[in-house]
Design a protein that fits this description.
13 strands, 4-stranded antiparallel sheet, alpha/beta, 561 residues, 7-stranded mixed sheet
Length: 561
Amino acid sequence: MTEDPLPVLTDNPYFNAVGLILYDYFTFFKTTVNNEFKQYEIWQVMLITVAITLMSEAILNFLIQDEPLLSRLKKGTFRTVRILPIIGAIIQEKVDKTKAEMANDGPWVLPEGHSYQTELPAQGLSDKELFGVISKYNSLNDVAWKKGRCSGTIYCAEEDKNEMLSEVYKRYCWSNPLHVDCFKDVRKMEAEVVAMCGALFNHPTKASGTVTSGGTESILMSMKTHRDWARETKGIDKPNIVCPITAHPAFDKAAAYFKIHIIHVPVDPDTYAAKPSDIAAAINSNTICIVGSMPQYPHGIMDDIQALNDIALRYDVGLHVDACLGGFLIPFMDEAGFPLPPFDFRLPAVTAISVDTHKYGYTYKGSSVVMYRTVEMFYHQITSTTEWPGGIYASPSMAGSRPGANIAVTWAAMMSFGRDGYVQATREVIKGARYLIAGLEKIDGVEVMGSPAISCVAWTSKIFNIYNMSSDLTKKGWNLAVLQFPAGIHIALTRRHMSPGVIDQLLSDIRDSAAVQMLNPGAAASGAAAMYGMAAQIPDRSIVGDISREFWKLYYSTGLQ
């Protein structure tokens, strides 16, 4: 047998020498493999090759995923621990104890004199009887939201607006835009609401989008749209989105609903703002969209949308701006005397914006708007069933039938407030937030979290357990939100907080609580504060998920389960 002639690769002696060395290695590898497999028949070699290929692919799929290997190993470890006979039993005992405590202390525990109606009455109630029952139900409420004691929740403070909106709702309570031939006026109103929102956010032409039932549905629709858009235009079939950890949980819900992997990026521990460099580093070939918030809910911090715009352009991915919380404040802040850098469709990479009209748009709950830069992208939000025997069925959002009354009152609120009304309302809310921040900064032991720029303010303490302060404020009649990672207290200021004395009373109660906590800063938390603190420390977040699901089981409880 003659040996293969040595190849001459190039006239360059250096590259030729390197080529000969590589050729020698290849020849050695080929000879070794051939010698090793001489003992096998052809079908055995083929079977071994297939097995090695499949095994290699399985290993690569395990190692190379959007979710980090360490995170997956951590989850697997916790799952294993929970099924161990002794340790698993101890964990389950503690979980059951927590669930039992929840069952005995919550809004599902009715006071004396109340019971659940679990079957239709044998005879219908008269109007007088019905409203008598409703009045009894009303007595269950013990939070003075009309006096501004809640974080967010109720945003409009004008009773005359409420009367007007109630009348509009009454006129349209039977309308349904699914039947557009019957309710052409509602169709016109919805188109105008989307157009007016598009103008507020500087859409270059006319915004394409819909009115939805709330911010969560707006985000769900946008993520579904980005998924389908990226699949058609880029061939991405394993999509992911990149979000700061402070982005709204609706993005997690969209990921669960639409089989999108979500990559959470930590925020700066001092400013609580998303770090654009970390978001850029998390993007890969399957990324369909990155997310920025204006502002994020926990701390009221605005993400750097201009920097995210540059990243989205560089990597050719979508950019969703979540303005659900601040959407009817930020377009008016320049005129109100609080200028902001560009955050909307003026930035060329912004592909979608969500904005809640039922917050600072001052309409009734169940109203939000999602908008897209192009009508071509909006097409991906619409679902169409063409082979149904009942006819061609196409709908623009999650629901088929939709309450036209919500669209009508949204349109009415926007028309009634007008630009001047929203500018004035924005000026009041932002001034109130700045006043609260200035007051908090003067309280010993209390620290404002980051630099809130809009309407949400959060504070914490590095000296005492902030959850104890939360319990104190609850006892004083406040209904505020608690934060975790790190622990804190949050309030979303509304027009109701702008009533004389409300913010001053909140500052006074915070000041009094801080003084008490500073006397014994190491005091252990108790009650609800202890439960929340414990939940934040549990490393296995699936346990916390189980407990949170128990809440909704109890929510629907009528004492029969």
